[in-house]
Amino acid sequence: MRASLIQIAVDEDEPVGSRRRRAAALVREQRGADLVVLPELWTTGAFAYEEFGREAEPLEGPTYETMAKAASDAGVWLHAGSIPERAASGSGSAAQDGPLYNTSLVFSPSGELAAVYRKIHRFGFDKGEAVLMGAGRDLVTVRLPGTTLGVATCYDLRFPELFRGLVDAGAETLVIPAGWPERRRAHWTLLAQARAVENQAFVLACGTAGTHAGVPQAGHSIVVDPWGEVLAEAGSAEEVLTVDLDPAKVAATREQFPALKDRVLGLEPPAQRR
After folding, report:
1. Mean pLDDT across 225-249
2. Is 119 one of the catalytic residues?
3. 105 found inside a domain
4. How many domains does the chain contain in total?
5. Which residue in 119, 129, 172, 239 is the catalytic one?
6. What is the DSSP annotation of 218-265?
7. Enclosing domain of residue 225
8. In a domain, 201, yes or no
9. Catalytic residue at 69?
10. Which end of the chain has fewer beta carbons closer than 10 Å to its terminal beta carbon, N or C?
């Protein structure tokens, strides 16, 4: 399986429509790959909080339409990164009144929507994404020829229980688009390798380059195998990282070192001492 991670740069002076067209052109250039991945919130920048509402779009908005066609033109499975989605409200009122989500879109090689994932863990503590966007609730997997993707986004990487859930749902390749800051790049690499080792799965972690609202991005998109070996790693600038993977390595690793079978579930904390 050939995977291409497009570590696109977010330039605040580049209009969103222009970057959308540029990203689509980069996707089309990956014809011959099996899977292409874009980063988190590459239309706005993950730290450009004031842009979330202004640039939010419905699920089947301009990014959906552009990326669906790019996937079809290239004949690839496309994880189109994530967008600020303005969901329709339940009351039937106008879409602009609905909640915001950090929403990932996955397309098939025919351009059909294969999966939607709304980010579960929102970053910011008491500000930014954590208060501006709603939280997703659903674990999402996507079956590809030869492997099953488990889908997560950026800050999700810090929560191993989410990835255990994805593995229990059949995931063998964990795909993590991100807008990770440079100042915590060491955590990015460490956590990507940890999620690969503990779940005995491939990890494809695709970040952005450039600067989001004054926050320099880490870049350094990374592909890790089920033993934790780094197969490929990008630099800090815009780059397309392409690597060939053997999906059979997941089953082989899990059979050779069957640690997942030794999980002990349902543990409870000890009773409080009186």
Report:
1. 98
2. yes
3. yes
4. 1
5. 119
6. ----EEE-TTS-EEEE--SSSEEEEEE--THHHHHHHHHS-GGGG---
7. 2-260
8. yes
9. no
10. C
